[in-house]
Amino acid sequence: MSDQHAFPSLSLVPKAQAAQSAKDFKTDQEVRWCPGCGDYAILAAVQAFMPELGIRRENTVFVSGIGCSSRFPYYMNTYGMHSIHGRAPAIATGLAASRADLSVWVVTGDGDALSIGGNHLIHALRRNVNLKILLFNNRIYGLTKGQYSPTSELGKITKSTPMGSLDAPFNPLSLAIGAEATFVARTIDSDRKHLQSVLRAAAEHRGTALVEIYQNCNIFNDGAFEVLKDATTAQRALIRLEHGRPIRFGPDLGEGVFRDALTGELHTAPVTPDNEDRVLVHDAHAPNPVTAFGLSRLADNDTLHHTPIGVLRSVERPVYDTLMAEQLATAVEQRGEGDLATLLAGADTWTVE
Amino acid sequence: MTSEVDQVEAVGDGSDGPLGRQGPSAPRRAKPIRRLDRVIIRFAGDSGDGMQLTGDRFTSETASFGNDLSTLPNFPAEIRAPAGTLPGVSSFQLHFADHDILTPGDAPNVLVAMNPAALKANIADLPRGAEIIVNTDEFTKRALSKVGYALDPLSDGSLEAYHLHKVPLTTLTLEALKESGLARKDAERAKNMFALGLLSWMYHRPTHGTEGFLRQKFAKRPEIAEANISAFRAGWNFGETTEDFAVSYEIPPARLPAGRYRNISGNLALSYGLIAASRRSGLPLFLGSYPITPASDILHELSKHKNFGVRTFQAEDEIAGVGAALGAAFGGALGVTTTSGPGVALKSETIGLAVSLELPLLVVDIQRGGPSTGLPTKTEQADLLQAMFGRNGEAPVPIVAPATPAECFAAALEAARIAVTYRTPVLLLSDGYLANGSEPWLIPEVDELPEIKPGFATGPNTPDGSFWPYLRDPQTLARPWAVPGTPGLEHRIGGIEKQDGTGNISYDPANHDLMVRTRQAKVDGVAVPPLEVDDPDKLARVLVLGWGSTYGPITAAVRRLRADGAHIAQAHLRHLNPFPANLGAVLGSYERVIVPEMNLGQLALLLRAKYLVDAQSYNQVRGLPFKAQQLADVLWAAIGTLEGNDGDE
């Protein structure tokens, strides 16, 4: 069955002719992130994951905006574009919409995607363009040396907010779900296995996938996600979502997520024999986004307690580029391939002898 | 050939009896006919009166009759401005002739005024003796006072200098449609077709085209179609029978170069030019655009032609429009974005990226009055310096500017040729007047259109088998265009400065200096045709130099001068960056250079800076094209001063 694609979602992308390894995706460029940056771990995880897709390297494109994370394409031995601040989703939309045979990935950060590029992000999500968007969220501006970002917590002391930030932060996953995203997931830079499982799910998805990756900036916001990484604290703080499984976490999975029968809100509580059958079963494919939105609001923004990771939402909806290609095909079916001479002449002509 | 010097006059009485090219429904003519060489008609009414449609139909009739023509639609930015007010007046001017003409005309010979506001807004433009057809039904006390008429101009003698036709257009339309069963309000709306019918009778326009058009337009509501046709015929018959209209006029077809013609507006020609460029290059067309007046019609038009493989993407904003076009260009498409001045401002960062990436990209700017929102529906040429310099850093882009509506077709092909050949963004500067104005177009043969060769990179370009994305063609300085999907040519490009050749990130001072100069040299080296100078007797001492849509009025002015025995040279720039190589020499061979522009002297500034020449500006920023006579006066004065100086010496 070697003719079959490892990922049916990539059926229009030519298959690789030979097996690939992580090494094939490394470039000769010196990686210039700060030593200890979470980006290194993400890069290594992505490079190691790409061979799994089984598609030709030359049909893979990484597009980025501006910011630390946006240097990513330089280190991927595929086609790539390091564009301008915030605009990567727009540029990638033009590329993906005109080339169905490409696997297009966008690498962005919390400032790039949610501040200057917020408009392009939400419109890419609602259109459901065939893009995989990796949003490296470190809750700080790194490249400009440490100003607060749209995901920084209220009151955060930074270079530009010596008395504390006045801005209420965005919740990127709530925003994405509100923008009609069809695939929304979260993972963590240091958990390579989980990160790759989420990349796999994103690649399997047809349409726009938004993957938020919690990424440590060890220079300007060190330890921002430590509570989710330290084995002891993570046990209470982290909620691992798995489709079709009851949402339980904590020591001995003693905690669970429940839905309030009256308000519909989600909350956590200790699991008891009495309430065990009422623990919410995760359904990533639920057409209605209400529960996914509820899950995206579960975490405490300051302490990060009760942070769900994994795929919150993954639903099928027609893909923009496919619809566009279908309209072109329909137009040819209905009217035939366009004839330039006929077009130029139009209906009303006259002849001068 | 008749010149444009004189106001139109009846030349000879013509012959009685029916003429050859009438519509099939036209009855035999019983009244005398006069022959004219040209006429300027202006239809004016409320923005809801259908004046643009009326003008369009009269234009189509005139085009199919074979006159040369030029049009000037003029309408408010508001979709439905308050009824009966001066700001709500919408007008459409049409100039047609039995000879080659260049402008929509300075002053109308005929004004159709559908209400007092239309009369008041336009009367100042009419020469004495002009004909005015007014819809008397609308000249109520209330309507008159709304626009500040204390007395009724139709009866107070203030219009004595004109030939006034008082026609109750609404009443006559209602009368004609009383059997139609339409509600009064619907029936009234056909009054523009009554007016069109009357004017069609006056000027012997064929009628079958309009009847066919109405049947098609209202195919789903045949009763409306028939009502409009009835009103149209009633207008025609009214002209034939009423005594107020004693004569009708014949304007014979123009003697244009042989070939097949159609009428075309600038935006339509530009749209077709883009599709032709796609076909002639083999590159699929991708338009990323955001709606903006007066460019949106290109988005509308291109979205109709998906069977040409045209992808149109209505983006979330101007920036996304150009971004998507650039992304598509990276993937090997002919990437285009269309906009107007404010949109160019938003796109400038992405245009700069395209300069740095050295990818082909077409940026079409249909200029309008600025700054800021300015005059969205009016014309201006004040984006030249924005096109030239409106980006951070040294970011040169070639600039192409069509001179007439029909020329927008060739300009789109030329802009695409430069973009693809040199791997560069190109600015195409049209304007509101070219966009909406129309003229006859000699339909080109598809096989004779220029071919554009993308020349994609297909393999490594260095001896060691690696691929250098910035290794240039020594002739054009263009870099290779390697599209995703090409094995072995995987590469990364970006907005950070790149090392010459390899394209790797480089912050090296000498390399940056080299790259900045190389990008400039590439644009400076774009091959553009030499500037042609029209100086028939080689005796001219004054050169008038224009660019863009001022071509029509400048050329008309030059003809007037020459008809009166003056010596004047004319040249018109279609390439604003780089300038034609002979431009400096041309400028140096005249004692005086006059540069009329619809801005405050932007081309003149560039000419002075580059050629150290005392180019003199003549400027207007009224949102309207120059009038031929206005420019003729300016050029006369320039010639006169020169001769006066000679006398003093």
Structural description of this entry:
The complex is a heterodimer of chains A (353) and B (649). Chain A is α/β, with parallel strands linked by helices. Chain A is built from eleven helices and twelve strands. In chain A, strand 8 and strand 9 form a beta hairpin. Chain B contains 20 helices and 23 strands. A seven-stranded mixed beta sheet of chain B has the order 11-10-12-13-15-14-21, with helices on both faces. Chain B folds into four domains: 33-246, Pyruvate-ferredoxin oxidoreductase, PFOR, domain III (Pyruvate-ferredoxin Oxidoreductase, domain 3, 3-Layer(aba) Sandwich); 262-448, 3-Layer(aba) Sandwich (Rossmann fold); 455-527, no CATH class; 533-648, Rossmann fold (3-Layer(aba) Sandwich). In chain B, helix 14 (407-422) links the parallel strand 14 and strand 15. Chain B is of the alpha/beta class. Chains A and B meet through strand 1, strand 2, helix 2, helix 4 and helix 10 of A and helix 1, strand 9, helix 9, helix 11 and helix 12 of B. Strand 2 (79-82) of chain A pairs parallel with strand 17 (492-494) of chain B.
Apparent shape of chain A: globular
Helix content of chain A: 25-40%
Which spans of chain A of ≥5 residues are poorly predicted at pLDDT below 50?
A: none
How many domains make up the coordinates of chain B? 4
Q: Strand order of the main beta sheet of chain B, please?
A: 11-10-12-13-15-14-21
Write down the CATH class of the domain at 20-224 and 318-332 in chain A. Answer: Alpha Beta
Instruction: Report the CATH topology name of the domain at 20-224 and 318-332 in chain A.
Output: Rossmann fold
- The helix fraction of chain B, in percent, is 25-40%
Query: Which radius of gyration of chain A do the C-alpha atoms yield?
Result: 23 Å
CATH topology assignment of the largest domain in chain B? Pyruvate-ferredoxin Oxidoreductase, domain 3
Separation of termini of chain B?
Answer: 39 Å
CATH homologous group name of the largest domain in chain B:
Pyruvate-ferredoxin oxidoreductase, PFOR, domain III
Q: What distance separates the N and C termini of chain A?
A: 67 Å
CA radius of gyration of chain B = 27 Å
What is the β-strand count of chain A? 12
Helix and strand sequence of chain A? HEEHEHHEHEHEHHEEEEHEHHE
Biggest β-sheet description of chain A:
8 strands, mixed
Largest sheet of chain B: 7 strands, mixed
Strand content of chain A: 15-25%
